[in-house]
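Can anyone check this?
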Amino acid sequence: MNTVCAALFAYRKNRSQQGMVSVVLLFLLFIMLFLGRGLFRLARQEAENIEQYRLEMQLRLAAEGATENLWMRLTSYETQLDALQEGGKISLEQGKAGDIATYTYAVVSKGKLYLVVTAFRRESALEKLLEPHVKLKTEVKKIIDEKGKTDYKWMGWTD
């Protein structure tokens, strides 16, 4: 009888340990699952951040390029710029390079002439809703030399 009780007790003890090991392993499996899910989410968020930075840099470079192109032809807009009054705004150029569009206009504020370039992209439905864009502004000063020739001096980027 003692051997039967001893065998039954040993069976129950071994079965209890197996159940505890299963619970511990199941708990570790859930921990690994949540860590993996968190890592996947982090990687996806970083990929979205990199894409957003790339788009922002493309828009900024497009706006800078449009500003420099306009700067080279600024004297051809001299009559329009002379007619511009305080608080007025005139559209100078519109362009499109690939999927990035640029609008350039001149503004007079506090007696200073500013060239403002906005570059944006509206290709997908989400971009049409969010409208990612970059707006750059530069100050320009009109200079007339002794011969009466008009030129413009770049005063730098402003906010």
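Reply from J.R.: I decoded it. DSSP finds three helices and five strands in the chain.
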